[in-house]
Design brief:
single chain; alpha+beta; Ribosomal Protein L9, domain 1; Ribosomal Protein L9, domain 2; 2 domains; 4-stranded mixed beta sheet; 3-stranded antiparallel beta sheet; 35% helix; elongated
Length: 151
């Protein structure tokens, strides 16, 4: 019997795959547990169409991420913070601060977990920060930490 897998089944295949299994295995195991559904020509065509749409969406998402990475690579952010005479900050500049500044400057919402800082920035100066825009797509943005009042 031909069935379309609704979930990943370790011994058979991935979700959306059309596989041939014995009638008993389909009726007694796969179908009652909603792991698969019986395949028909119309349903197979619908699953193939949906897979093509998902593949096209992934390509569009990667293209958008590449464009965003290019924009972020040209971005210079200026973050102001209270600092002493020697350039040491009274607090620190964190990934959350950089995320807020990115939203303010470029209207781009990046999760603070996607901004990699080995540790919070505690001195004024210029820093290069790596930002994960999408899976496998990263950008480097320049962050200038300036003392408050000297923007």
């Amino acid at each position: 019997m031909d069935v379309i897998l609704l979930e990943n089944v370790e011994t058979l295949g991935d979700k959306g795959s059309v596989v041939v299994v014995s009638d008993g295995y389909a009726r007694n195991f796969l179908l009652p547990r909603n792991l698969a559904e019986q395949a028909s020509p119309g349903r197979i065509a619908e699953v193939r169409r949906r897979q093509e749409e998902e593949a096209a969406k992934k390509v569009r998402d990667v293209d958008r991420a590449d464009d965003l990475a290019e924009i972020l690579g040209k971005t210079v952010l200026t973050v102001t913070a209270q600092a002493g005479e020697d350039g040491k900050l009274f607090g620190s500049v964190t990934a959350a601060d950089i995320s807020k500044e990115l939203f303010r400057a470029r209207n781009v919402k990046i999760d603070k977990k996607k901004i990699s800082l080995e540790e919070p920035i505690k001195e004024t100066g210029d820093y290069i920060v790596e930002i994960e825009v999408h899976t496998g797509v990263k950008a480097n943005a320049k962050v200038i930490v300036a003392p408050a009042g000297q923007e």
